Amino acid sequence: MVKTIETTHDKSDIIIQLLNAQKARQFREEYLDLHVYEQAQIFTDLTEKQRARLYRYLTAEEVGDMFDAIEEEPEEVVNYFKEMTPQYAANVIDQMYTDNAVDILAYAQKKDLAKYLRLIPQEKAAEIREMLHYEDKTAGAIMSTEFVEIVGNQTVRSAMHVIKREADDAETIYYVYVIGSNEKLRGVLTLRDLLTHDDDEMIEDIMTTPVMSVQVSDDQAEVAQTIRDYNFLAIPVTDYDGRLIGIITVDDIIDVIDEESAEDYSGLAGVDTDEETNSPLKAAVNRLPWLIVLLLLGMSTTTLISHYESMIGEASILAIFISSITGTAGNAGTQSLAVAVRRLAEKEEDQPSWYKQFLTEFFTGLLTGFVTGLTICLIVGIWKQNFVLGFVIGMAMMCAITVANLAGSFIPNLMDRIGVDPAVASGPFISTLSDLTSVLIYFNIAKLFMQFLMGK
Amino acid sequence: MVKTIETTHDKSDIIIQLLNAQKARQFREEYLDLHVYEQAQIFTDLTEKQRARLYRYLTAEEVGDMFDAIEEEPEEVVNYFKEMTPQYAANVIDQMYTDNAVDILAYAQKKDLAKYLRLIPQEKAAEIREMLHYEDKTAGAIMSTEFVEIVGNQTVRSAMHVIKREADDAETIYYVYVIGSNEKLRGVLTLRDLLTHDDDEMIEDIMTTPVMSVQVSDDQAEVAQTIRDYNFLAIPVTDYDGRLIGIITVDDIIDVIDEESAEDYSGLAGVDTDEETNSPLKAAVNRLPWLIVLLLLGMSTTTLISHYESMIGEASILAIFISSITGTAGNAGTQSLAVAVRRLAEKEEDQPSWYKQFLTEFFTGLLTGFVTGLTICLIVGIWKQNFVLGFVIGMAMMCAITVANLAGSFIPNLMDRIGVDPAVASGPFISTLSDLTSVLIYFNIAKLFMQFLMGK
């Protein structure tokens, strides 16, 4: 029988009933039969009372495995530890992979953290303490310290023994790392390599070297790109002396890719799209800051337009096309911005230089501006039977699109250079800048032709 | 020594020099020492003449492994086959993983395809033929047919023999699948499971069952979500009778996640952001269609505004705030759209109902609209010393934001329901609809207060 996601969901009701009915043995049987991800899904739906019962029915090891798969925000997961006895919580933390435990403990109160760390075996506690110091979004912050290490002068047979012994604790056993003196990373072997070589061969004869690795302070996005390009299942992390201190596995990288793309998308939309709330109040609080900032930035455009109020009073037809010009230039700017942001995110070596990208955008702007401007010129000319007006609007649109394209490529590159994430803040700057320049260009071109426009 | 990406890049110059100097043996040594991803990076930079030489120096098997790692668009890779003798091309294709070969052959001309398939071993040719029929973006289109299958009534020892034998060809050996009669999928075992059990244990006693699997016609985005949630390295693909026909590995899924998020981002920005060109002409061709469509859609707003031209003539101050109102409502609509698109993409079970989401957006719109409206009312009231005008603009903004929020949540849900990808086409609809309603609301509210506005 093939298991589908639906059958799992039917099961969750039965399991919760068993918990309510205090049938400990049956509950354990059914619950532990599920994949940890499914266990976690059920767990996060429980009430506090049900959770208290679950902690009694399951061992800290079982709960720890399940906590590795929880998808709630760490600042919420940390509260579960407070519901447990300190020793039970410490055991749960001890069972979890260090990277996952650290994510959550980063949100614990100082005194709780100290309490847990005292109750956790010393070695693990030291690892947690160290990892808590790595900066967010670096290799150090997402790495796991549970990996298999072997040495060069052992045989394939003895390496296989090490792997079997550590199979239960290591995050992956499919890559094993060869270390030399001082824990220096020397080589790597896949389990596939080990299986296809004779038992008596020496590790240093068959290991892959040099090893592709990342440094503990590397940006998580770069690590993700490397794993993606090379189709690795894991990559080793070294400190500044080339010592192996952790690994990053592909499942952590998928979360990174997801997080980064959600950020890009959110940046363009001006909202945290992972807003999980169904409360209009919380949603409003999430969205209002950007809306107000954009409104205030937009007021600069409004102020600029108001300088031309007398011109509008004389030729009200001009007002009709403001939004068409600012809108189209804004669209062009967003296109150019999106292309630039994606290129920056990919960080590939063979990218055209900054200067060249800028030049490309300039000519792209001129070309798209010319075609779009010609289109609107014809439409307005025919619609309003006034080709002077059509020409003014067409010219304004062409200039505005060219400027917007330049801004769309210039601003994210500038932000990247000064160390600000271009995805987050570029959007509103582009649209404000492009609105301002569009209005300026439009009314100044219109001014030149005012006598012809008035005549109409 | 830890290898970094930079040292690889230095090497590529040396390797190309060896190729130019016709030093076949040394070229082979240096080139094949690189990771296939790096080999592919160098390959795609070669000239046609250099490539011809490379085909002579390397075996079809070596080129096939490298082609598995090529990141160029398949429609371009297919042209390389034309540079080879048909038999050599067939051997390269035979060596590649079926899923990768199929991606490329989908772009081959009919007569070329027939030629290659005739020269490829029958079994593989049949697989390729079948996979060419799977719809794009389904599990069938991205699956690989190189997996390890064992049966239930064999021992761990004999299963390990099967794995070792197939280690060179299978896409992954870290998951092995247990099949029953008629190739039906019965269970799964990780290599970790096998290593931690006694050699004499029977597979059916230790296999994990039931197996989480996907059907050949399932959407690739759903497959990606499952692999991500469960942290799998691979997932089996079954046909409608539950027969195992392929697997999808995590590296293919990373590409899917990347592709899907790029699509969402591109949809919001109205441009294919993976545009890799540095030619302004090509970039313009890529961007113009959306720009023109958006311009034409925007003309409906312009037409609507032109209906109120006489009102603007009487009170030109009204014109100044059009872009502020349409802009802010557009921003609110984009926020609401982005949240809805992300929710649809996640396809989680515990999502609020359609109706409830709609209600949440309505109240979110009212709340954000009220705060934003109040802000602009105060700004305009103080700036222009005219609180009636402030009230008109504030009211209009509040109504316009509420409507935009509703549209932003309604349209993507509707599109999803009728089977159109909401990420691709929603953006322009939202902004057009929100512009139109904003203008309509604004001028109708203004009309009610016209006598007070004229007084100013």
Automatic annotation (TrEMBL), chains A, B:
Q: What does this protein do?
A: Acts as a magnesium transporter.
CDD domains in alphabetical order: CBS_pair_Mg_transporter
Specify the protein name.
Answer: Magnesium transporter MgtE
Organism field: Ligilactobacillus ruminis
Q: Where this protein primarily resides, as one coarse class?
A: membrane
Fetch the SMART domains from UniProt. Answer: CBS (SM00116), MgtE_N (SM00924)
Relate the assembly described in the record: Homodimer.
Alphabetical list of PROSITE patterns matching this protein = CBS
Annotated ranges, domain CBS? 143-206, 207-263
Q: Where in the cell is it found?
A: Cell membrane; Membrane
What are the transmembrane regions?
Answer: 288-305, 358-380, 387-411, 423-446
Which family is this sequence assigned to?
Belongs to the SLC41A transporter family.
**One GO location term (cellular component):** plasma membrane
Extract one GO molecular function annotation from the record: magnesium ion transmembrane transporter activity
